[in-house]
Amino acid sequence: MKGPSRRLFLQFSGLAVLLTACAPRTGTGAGVEELTALGRRWREVTLGAGLFDPAREPYRARLARLGAAARLHRDAMTLTGRSLWPDLPFPSLGATPSRLRAMARAYALPGTGLTAEPGLGSAVATGIEHYVRHVYAADARQTGNWWDWQIGAPRALLDAAVLAGPHLTGGRNAALCEAVDNFVPPDRLDDYAGNSTGANRVDLCTVTLLRAIAGADPGRAALAVSALSPVFRYVTEGDGFYRDGSFIQHGSVPYQGGYGAVALTGLATLAAVLRGTPWEIADPAFHNVLDAVDRSFAPFVHDGACLDLVRGRGVARRPYGDHARGREIAAAILLLAETAPAADRARWRGMVKGWAARDTAKPMLRAAEGDPAFHARLAAVLRDETTPAAPEPSGHRLFPMSARAVHRRPGWCAALSMASSRVARYEHGNGENPRGWHTGAGMLYWWGGGDQYSDSFWPTVDPYRLPGTTVSTLRLPDGAGGAWGDTRPPADWVGGVTDGAYAAVGQHLYGLESALEAFKSWFFLDDAVVCLGAGITSRDGVPVETVVDNRRTGAALTVDAVAGRAHLDGHGGYVLPPGQPLRTLRETRTAGGASRSYATIWLDHGVDPDAAGYVYHLMPGANLAATRARAADPGWARVLANTSAQQGIAVTSLGITAACFWAGGRAGDLAASDPCAVLVRDLGDGTATVTVADPRCVLDGLTVTWDHPVAGIVNPHPLLASARTGARLTLVFGRLADRAGASHTVTVRLA
Prior knowledge:
Strand content: 25-35%
Number of helices: 19
Distance between the termini: 68 Å
Mean pLDDT: 94
Oligomer: single chain
Strand order of the largest sheet: 13-14-15-16-23-20-19-18
Number of strands: 35
């Protein structure tokens, strides 16, 4: 691979000139050498300098296109009091700074045809100077979205300034520093609150670090690093990372696939840039960020795509946005791996390699060509024969603090999005996702191969018939409920219990701007999800429906209501009690220039139902024969209870008995003193596990009884206060209230 050009050497030798020009008036130049090195490191990390050969494809063509675009921008630049380019009128807070940064990237990257070209560097400097004078000025007033002024514009401008450093000398750079100080002063990082939390805090710290590099300010660099520390700490409410793997932004929106990805990318970048410098991240709590890769992000990436239930309003932006976010997460993980312990590094590289191998809809390596640094890192992993591609994991992950669940089995994956007193029904804002009303009403996503939700699903699907949901068909206005996730229902019992392989998950459902109330439970098993609904009541004067499924497909749908089954060719099967009314619809829906075919299956509970209910099994990937066989075996999953007090099932072949207790009482062989979730599994080796959880997070104590002979306790839990064995097992647990809805397991020896 070719080394850096002489022009690049001169460029970054000249960076000290830029730093000195904007040094604090009281400074003595101390720290300039380290900050110059930090600027070089910023370029190396963010541009991938040294990772790829610019003369080889696909880099050669991509870099040439970047250079050609930069040349056009340079030649079209027309300085007026209203704009830099005629096609980007004032104030253009996003597009103009981004265009200047793109030009600076062409200046800094090798192989663009304009590498270290003085005319381009001068144009970037002139553009920044003009923009700071007329738009992003020290005396300008912030209007519109705060993010543009405090994060978007300053980051792009500072990034461009650092990349084109030798050309921003004297007053030009000083004016930029002064303008940034106006909108992002040091005291902006004093309080970890408001819009200075989570991903926003990481972005603000990144802006502060770039300002430190551009302004030769070691103290500000130290501030940028120290102000990151609150992001590393686990939170129990509001924005940030939770111990159960949840990540929340905007106070109530699960957001690993949006703000969370931004936070991970920013933290990975800063860790790499700061490594080996006086400002290297040394906070021990940074280990929580490393843990978040496996706990918070990996569970929500399936075959390279980030699941939509943690993408907030971003689901409505563009087709295949889930794959774009998956790539962003993969890129951040590979970068973070460079500063991680060896075991983490090896595991993460294998995981990303597996994602890339399975992402056939939008092949990851090809899609990564627009980001040379990520492409080079990914290509290296894919070439590395010592790194095996990790398969999709199998098991269940429950996130009670964000009302989310993800279940994986060989050949399929399912995910559930709910809403609670802590978690928004949906998020809309900036005109995005105004009809996401029911995504938190128990939407059950599932993948059995293919990209069901990637290709224009969101603009074309009927928003009143999202799969798995129970909804009032009352028409809602766009943006019903508050914006930015201010749509939380009053439900406290939302969550469930899992032993890591299986799960019982429940939601006390309240309709959005509706009188609807219901109790919904999902039991996640090996080849099926058993879905129960009870207490479905409404007074809206319109029908209430439970959407068994709504698949974006033109595949053949066969229904046999007498036998209690339906099958969607190439997708899966559905089993219902014989004679349970089942409605179907085949339609083509068009929106935003896209037309897509849908097969919809739903249960009609009628107008203003009173304590209606349902039972059905979803069998992802099942063929017609398997669906028929399950329908012919009604005792495979026995319903122990399906009321507004308890919902439970028993599956003898799996040794499973599980229940969601909305109130204390009994469900088959299980009884509980208080509302809770319980999952018992006979392991087939003479032992069984009893797993309990307190989804409401309020219990000072809980007594669970299992009517089954038990000889003794094998593995007690620290929260287990007492136990009685014999013909019946009685477990008395201590305080569960402060356990954030987590699951707790006791292992017993069967008699």
